[in-house]
Design a protein that fits this description.
76% helix, disordered C terminus
């Protein structure tokens, strides 16, 4: 989580040059190359069902990264992650049918309402940025579901590598339209490689192992802290100062995630 959020701050510096779409393409492209060199996915033979799972996983990864960066170009990092976090929180809530879950859903809703520019106490936030973040959250939910499914029968490194290749392929047209020849500017390549490592190759490899080794509730508790890391990274590296109301909104979403995880009826190990 720390690696991803620091990488996001580097990526935001690329937006004025190649746009969010171009930054996403470079991130995923370099990450795919690095992951393939490390894990050598061509050595493992996959059947049709396994390939299908990896393909959907990669597609969800592409949408999650692209929409998140497009949101990041319009709204602060901490706000973008907090809104995006509705995706995995929805997965957690839908997997349980306890009455207590209505409380966590309500807390998450309060957090989102506080973020949205709907009341006098709310801070102005770009509406399109909010929609991009919500779209990224939907893709994040798909990433969790299909990532676990793909990782249950395929080596974690292979899933991460092939998934990133699929993600990069789907991002190519968006990146070319946005940046064109600027994608090959030597001045931005060091930053692009750093983003690929920090926000792609390293954290997704670690996360695939975590999904397989950690109990679901433990993984969820740890992931609940991501909006905090995002907001702090935005503050330290991008000087993005959030209001008291926005910090309160993030706290509500974190509390909802923690509550739904801690009080989950089932504590299953990932397959």
């Amino acid at each position: 989580m720390i690696s991803i959020q620091i990488g996001a701050t580097f990526a935001k510096g690329l937006f004025p040059i190649i746009g969010a779409e171009g930054a996403t393409l470079l991130r995923q492209g370099f990450a795919a190359i690095i992951l393939c060199l490390v894990w050598r996915p061509w050595k493992q033979k996959l059947n049709k069902k396994q390939l299908q799972s990896v393909f959907i996983y990669g597609l969800s990864l592409s949408g999650m990264n692209l929409l998140f960066y497009m949101a990041l170009g319009r709204i602060p990092l901490g706000i973008a992650v907090a809104i995006e976090f509705v995706g995995p929180l929805s997965v957690a809530l839908l997997s349980s049918k306890k009455n207590l879950d209505f409380l966590w859903a309500a807390m998450a809703a309060i957090g989102i309402i506080l973020i949205l520019p709907l009341t006098k106490i709310s801070q102005p936030v770009d509406p399109l940025g909010i929609l991009y973040a919500l779209g990224a959250g939907i893709c994040w939910a798909m990433y969790i579901v299909f990532g676990k499914k793909a990782g249950s029968s395929v080596h974690s490194g292979t899933v991460a590598a092939l998934g990133m290749v699929v993600a990069a392929m789907f991002t190519v047209p968006f990146g070319i339209i946005s940046a064109g020849p600027l994608l090959f500017d030597k001045k931005i390549l060091p930053t692009a490689v750093a983003v690929a490592v920090l926000s792609g190759a390293l954290p997704y490899s670690l996360e695939m192992f975590a999904l397989k080794k950690l109990p679901t509730n433990t993984f969820g508790i740890l992931m609940s802290l991501e909006p905090v890391f995002a907001a702090l990274s935005g503050l330290v590296f991008l000087s993005e100062h959030l209001s008291v109301i926005q910090w309160s909104a993030i706290t509500c979403i974190i509390a909802a995630s923690l509550g739904s995880t801690v009080f989950s009826k089932k504590q299953l190990m990932p397959n």
